[in-house]
Amino acid sequence: MASTSDVGAKYELITRRLQEVLGGDSIKAILAEGRSPKAYWGTAPTGRPHIGYFVALTKIADFLRAGVEVKILLADVHAFLDNLKAPLELVAHRTKYYEFILRTVFTSLGIPTSKLIFVRGSDYQLTREYNLDNYKLCATVTEHDAKKAGAEVVKQVESPLISGLLYPGLQALDEQYLGVDFQFGGVDQRKIFTFAELYLPRLGYAKRAHLMNRMVPGLMGGKMSSSDPDSKIDFLDPPEAVKRKIKKAFCEEGNITENGLLAFTTAVLIPISQLRIERRKGETGVDSEEGQGAIGDQNPFVDDDAPEGTVFTIRREGKFGGPPSHYKDYQQLEDDFSAKKIHPGDLKTAVNKAIDSLLAPIRKAFAESPEWQQIEKLAYPDPNAKTKKKKEKVYHPPPPGKGKNAQVTEASVESSEPPPPISENTQPGAIGDL
User: Fold this and answer.
1) CA separation for the pair 107, 61 (Å, rounded)
2) What is the DSSP annotation of 62-97?
3) Which end of the chain has the least Cβ crowding within 10 Å, N or C?
4) pLDDT tens digit string along 22-62?
5) pLDDT in tens, 150-161
6) pTM (2 decimals)?
7) What DSSP letter does each residue of 316-340 carry, written as one string?
């Protein structure tokens, strides 16, 4: 049995900075027994991963610090089922691409990949047992519930495919077949999570807990989406593309409601700063391997001369200048921006610099890996690339009396002798034969 203080400390690590927790008492009960909770986070390998993934991937550091056993699900079957977002012939390549990206991002964050278990959905989702349970769900779940559960996740079209209705059920079954105590995902997964809590017990399986992180809005407002290039920054975007997208990002002075840069700062940059500061102090919980083998700059996003407790610094540049602003939490930054004490240009510069430092080691790893580069070409082929087609020869027969055999035929006709005439006495049926 674990002490109350130990349970409280680990539960705080597991749940801090989350937007919502469902079934938290079951996690506390596992911790109280002295056991390590088991969790999974899954992603369907469809479009190119973007920096919004930093929200979930950074949080996994907290899970490892609390002793949680974490599985990373590469949901290749889901990718195909979600309205053909990933065509079947590309799913295998995109799954490999995602694994390259995720392992590299984890390493750049100082999170030891040796403690993570990577699983492909097709490794178990095509088994007899899994499919039988899927059929049982299909005989239990109503169309209304299936459609409602996937409304925020599955691509919505005018004439939906049956595959989209299967999606929530498969995600619920993943909890059982991955053998976890809780599932972690974005708050956009909430309806699928409550669907799982309702229907898994009807198959005789335990109800799991569900932890949800906040969603980061796109650079132009709205959802950050892989299908909208201007709303997101990809992990492999070059510095000039990052600068251009941030320059275009909606960031109205004093506006804190639809501000993607402020949202990214509170959801990604400040948490990463805090992780790095805590690591410097040796505050990594039970994860003694955190930070070992990390690639890239591991400094927090603060000035060297910043006051103790600072988690984010904004420098003022340009003709107006002024001293830098140091913030101990996000609320102070939001208050200053709302009061127009921070100019949008200065915020954009600070965010641009921080994102570039995060992406630099990922770009470098990609540039040094021919295998990854080849997988990238196979996973996301250039739609504008022109493929050279070999011209097929079509045979056109020559007209009668023409062509290379015509002369030979005429010569053979001229040299042939006519057959001898048939006399009346030799014709079949003549009187001479009787």
Assistant:
1) 11
2) HHHHTT-EEEEEE-HHHHHHTTTSS-HHHHHHHHHH
3) C
4) 999 999 999 999 999 999 999 999 999 999 999 999 999 99
5) 888 877 667 778
6) 0.85
7) --TTT----EEESSHHHHHHHHHTT
